[in-house]
Design a protein that fits this description.
This protein starts with 10 loop residues before the first helix and ends with a helix. It is globular, with a radius of gyration of 20 Å. The protein is an alpha/beta fold and about 300 residues long. It has helices at about 10-30, 40-45, 55-65, 75-90, 105-115, 145-160, 180-195, 210-220, 240-245, 255-275, 285-295, 295-305, and strands spanning about 30-35, 50-55, 95, 120-125, 165-170, 200, 225-230, 250. It has 12 helices and 8 strands. Strand 1, helix 2 and strand 2 form a beta-alpha-beta unit. It is about 50% helix and about 10% strand. An 8-stranded parallel barrel has the order 1-2-3-4-5-6-7-8, surrounded by 8 helices. The structure holds sulfopyruvate and magnesium ion (MG). Magnesium ion (MG) binds next to helix 3.
Length: about 300
């Protein structure tokens, strides 16, 4: 990343290069994407050598808006957050677009708008609006869009995308909703046949039995659409291990958000207890480090040398 200021253009060549990188990564596997909730988290993810940035709906809801992940953040708010992230990273950006923010036309509009914004991929899930975060363990309604209707939306979205290399990931929530492996396979097949470029199969079964069962059935279908995992609740498997099981992409969706919250809480506790900034200094980033991360010196030099 050599730009001193966020710079999205020219959108085609920059976007095409990132999309090609994502598609090559999916073919070779595993692509490891890490969840960003803002531009700084994307800068840090790139700096630590990961393959892609996941714009986390959970992360943007909680960190940028202080809201629960229940479809409260709108399509345009997600697009704003995405543009800031897209502008500061050379990594492919994969955007969590929830359920496309509504019905058929909302899904189509979402794909067109994010494609035009230059991102490499979006992920559209089959949770009915308003969705519930998949990791939430409390009592909540979990209703899915009818399979045929979701396939219809995905097919139309694929037909509407303007850049051939833009990647549409269809996310199957059947396991999360408790519908079982048969229903998950039926949905995954329907979405792949509708033209999805990858299938995200989400699960909260820590034993991985559900995922293993899905993978065995998926192999039987003979379909070669790449699979994507979000191993938040089966965190003991490495990306390589998940790749061996059949996943082409692994999304570490929320660790930077959780690290940020824990670090801020600890720092605030120390500041409150000790009453002076020096108490926090050993545990926090140096001001100069922040200046460096956002290219402060280069930006001033570019201004003052011309
Ligand atoms: C997100 O990061 O917003 C995701 C992943 O969708 S999860 O929270 O596991 O559903
Ligand atoms: Mg999400």
């Amino acid at each position: 990343m050599v730009n001193t200021l966020p710079d999205n253009g020219p959108v085609t060549s920059r976007a095409d290069a990132k999309r090609a990188r994502l598609r090559e990564g999916l073919a070779a596997g595993p692509v490891v994407a890490v969840g960003a909730h803002d531009a700084m988290s994307a800068i840090l993810i790139e700096g630590h050598g990961f393959d892609a940035v996941w714009v986390s709906g959970f992360g943007v809801s909680a960190m940028a808006h202080g809201l629960p992940d229940l479809n409260l953040v709108t399509q345009t708010e997600t697009l704003d957050a995405t543009r800031r992230i897209e502008g500061v990273t050379d990594l492919p950006v994969v955007v969590d677009c929830d359920n496309g923010y509504g019905g058929f036309s909302n899904v189509v509009r979402t794909v067109v708008d994010f494609d035009r914004a230059g991102v490499s991929a979006v992920c559209i899930e089959d949770n009915l609006f308003p969705k519930r975060n998949s990791l939430y363990q409390g009592q909540s309604r979990r209703e899915l869009v009818d399979t045929k209707e979701q396939a219809r939306r995905l097919r139309a979205a694929k037909a509407a995308q303007e850049s051939p290399s833009f990647v549409l990931i269809a996310r199957v929530e059947a396991l999360i909703a408790g519908h079982g492996i048969d229903a998950a396979i039926e949905r995954a097949v329907a979405y792949a046949e509708a033209g999805a470029d990858a299938i995200l199969i989400h699960s909260k079964d820590k034993s991985l039995q559900e995922i293993e069962g899905f993978l065995a059935r998926w192999r039987d279908t003979g379909l070669s659409t790449p699979l994507v995992a979000v191993p938040t609740l089966f965190p003991d498997y490495t990306a390589e291990q998940l790749h061996e099981k059949g996943f082409s992409m692994v999304i570490l969706a929320n660790q930077p958000m959780r690290a940020s919250v824990q670090a801020m809480e600890e720092t605030l506790r120390v500041l409150r207890a000790e009453g002076k900034p020096a108490a926090a200094d050993p545990h926090i980033a140096k001001v100069n480090h922040i200046f460096e991360l956002v290219h402060t010196k280069e930006t001033i030099e570019a201004d003052e040398s011309q």
